[in-house]
Every structure is written in structure tokens, then in C-alpha cells.
UniProtKB/TrEMBL annotation:
<dbReference type="GO" id="GO:0009045">
    <property type="term" value="F:xylose isomerase activity"/>
</dbReference>
<dbReference type="GO" id="GO:0042732">
    <property type="term" value="P:D-xylose metabolic process"/>
</dbReference>
<protein>
    <recommendedName>
        <fullName>Xylose isomerase</fullName>
        <ecNumber>5.3.1.5</ecNumber>
    </recommendedName>
</protein>
<keyword id="KW-0732">Signal</keyword>
<dbReference type="GO" id="GO:0006888">
    <property type="term" value="P:endoplasmic reticulum to Golgi vesicle-mediated transport"/>
</dbReference>
<comment type="similarity">
    <text>Belongs to the xylose isomerase family.</text>
</comment>
<feature type="signal peptide">
    <location>
        <begin position="1"/>
        <end position="21"/>
    </location>
</feature>
<dbReference type="Pfam" id="PF04733">
    <property type="entry name" value="Coatomer_E"/>
</dbReference>
<dbReference type="InterPro" id="IPR011990">
    <property type="entry name" value="TPR-like_helical_dom_sf"/>
</dbReference>
<keyword id="KW-0413">Isomerase</keyword>
<keyword id="KW-0859">Xylose metabolism</keyword>
<dbReference type="GO" id="GO:0046872">
    <property type="term" value="F:metal ion binding"/>
</dbReference>
<keyword id="KW-0119">Carbohydrate metabolism</keyword>
<dbReference type="GO" id="GO:0030126">
    <property type="term" value="C:COPI vesicle coat"/>
</dbReference>
<dbReference type="InterPro" id="IPR001998">
    <property type="entry name" value="Xylose_isomerase"/>
</dbReference>
<dbReference type="GO" id="GO:0006891">
    <property type="term" value="P:intra-Golgi vesicle-mediated transport"/>
</dbReference>
<keyword id="KW-0479">Metal-binding</keyword>
Amino acid sequence: MASPDLLFNLWNLFYLGAYQAAINNIDIPGLDVGAAAERDAIVFCSYIALGSYQLVISEIDSSAATSLQVVKLLALYLTGDKDWMRFSVAFWHTFCGTSADPFGAPTMTWPWEDGTNSLAVAKRRMRAHFEFMEKLGVNKWCFHDRDIAPDGKTLEETNSNLDEIVQLAKQLQGETNIKPLWGTAQLFMHPRYVHGAATSPEVKVYAYAAAQVKKALEVTHYLGGENYVFWGGREGYQTLLNTDMKRELDHLANFLQAVVDYKKKIGFNGTLLIEPKPQEPTKHQYDWDVATTFAFLQKYGLTGEFKINVDCHHELETARINGLLGNIDANTGDPQVGWDTDQFMTDIAEATLVMSSVVKNGGLAPGGFNFDAKLSVPFV
């Protein structure tokens, strides 16, 4: 015969909205450690329901159970302390995505698009972006340099295009108090990066990538960004038959060290983040996963200079226990494939595990949650 649920009456009071009655009926004998923590969670949730946020915050200390830390997180959020839940909008998916896939044409059209990648379109996108964020009530955004401004025929023209759009973004930020969670350089889409950027065998490509990151870092700093991300989309190889792995890794480390040096030179105090991805798109990515990236940072003396931007729970927890968790890409992959497919997270169990690591980490600030999920027809 099943034992009685000692917390039944307490839960009943809570779900009926009798919050003060629940608080007054906490003396329940015979509770084990787990049940006692559950009772405390009910009571503190009742205090939250009555608006006593500060009582909850002051009573739950760092030694309390994880379940109570989650309740404290909710109380902090409701008081207006948003550092625990720092949401940001991904400019590239939200305002550049078309919902095309390998088997079909785009299925989304936007009123600000005219079929070109002109400065005029870029400005309309930026204004739509800030209007959307204001309506959402979200005050952080993330961007690649080439998402927000078009390439020019030369680096000078490209930088000029970026400067013009950045000035508009700066103006809109001033009107809305919206700022970047992070910025980055898009070092994977242009044909010049077919064999990598920092690991390219072509010195001209390496130099161009360095100039592009220099500019993107300056722009992120100018806009008040709190982090800067590196996703090595082309930093890897398909076969060792035409790859000098040590040489490429040495080049990548030199590249990242140069960024660290320049960050300090310009006074950018934000966090530098590396985003590991297996098989996306090369067969063997140099930043395959958190453990591989951590080993790379240790080998080249870069620990302490970089943290990790990551998504799935196993990777997130690996980053946390090594003191590397800096930011979360709030998306998920597909269990049937071996790489990140940027889908919306719909698995409650997975989301709970992710948030468990965030709570244990004491939050993510100055990082946050970037909604790096593709807009696609099934999710709209």
C-alpha cells in the first residue's frame, strides 16, 4: 500500500490560492529531507504569490537546495533584477531568415525587403528590429557584422557600410535603452573563407579575417556590447591528406591572442566567448566541443581570456564545472543528426536540465540567453 502524501494538504492550499493558509500550515511532522525541501519551495512560492519577493531573496542563501535556488531566481526576476534571465534577440535568424531549406524556396517575405542587400534595406531591417524588441520588452540583441550591413567591393567600402548602419543602431539604442549582449564577425559565408579564416592557408585571407574581427570588435565596444563571440564555422578540415593540423592550430592560437591584446588596447572589458560546434560545417572542427576547446585554451595559455557560448545541456555542464560557462544559445539540435540545427527548444526536460546548470552557475551575467533558433514554418 502506498504511503500517504504528507504534502497533499499544503499543495491543495497553494493551488486553491490560499497562500497565507499554506504559509501558516508548514509544521508537518515526518518529512524526510527531500519532502522538507519541497515544503519549503511551496511556502516560498506562496510568499512570491503574495508579493513578498525580498523575504524570499533574503531567506534562501547559497547553501539551500537547487529547487529553492530556482524559487529565488523567480523572486529576483520579479523584483526587476534581470541579470539571471538576460534574453537577447538574434538579428540573423529573426530579421534575415527566409525559412528556406535544402529542398525548397523561401516561405517568408518581409515588408522591409526589396530583393536587394542594399544599405536602404539594412536600415529598414534595423528599424524593424528595434520596433520588434520594444514590443517584446527585450533589451538585448546579438549580431554578426555582415547581418546588419552589406559587403562592399573593398574592405574600406565594407567598413563604411558598417559604420553607417552602426550609427543608426547607436541612435536607436539611445532612444530605447536596448544594447547588444554580444557582437561577432561573420567569418564563414563569403567564398574567401572556404578553407577557414584564422586557419586559412592563404595569408591574405588570414589578414582580411583579422581586419574584419578588429572592426567588429570595435563596433561591439562602441555599441556597448558586453561580450564578443567566435564561432569557427570554417576552422577545421575534411581530411588530413591536405592539412597541417599543428600549423593551423598555431595560427588559430596566434589569431586569438592578437584579439586578446587588441581588446585590452581599446579598453573593451567584455567577455570573449568561443562557440564550439561538432561537424558544423567541416568534418573535424577545431572547436569540436567544450572539452576540446578547453584543452586548446590550456595548451596555448589562453585560459582566463575566453569563456564558452554553448547550447546543449551536456556541453553546458562541462563548461560550468570548468569555470567556462559564459553564454547560452537558446536552441536545440535534432537527436537524429550530428550537428546543431538551431531548432526551438520544445523539450521541457531538456530545458529544466539547462536551467539547473544556470542556477548552479549563479547566473550567466555578463552573458545571457541568445535565441539562436531558425524561424521555420513548423514553429510559426
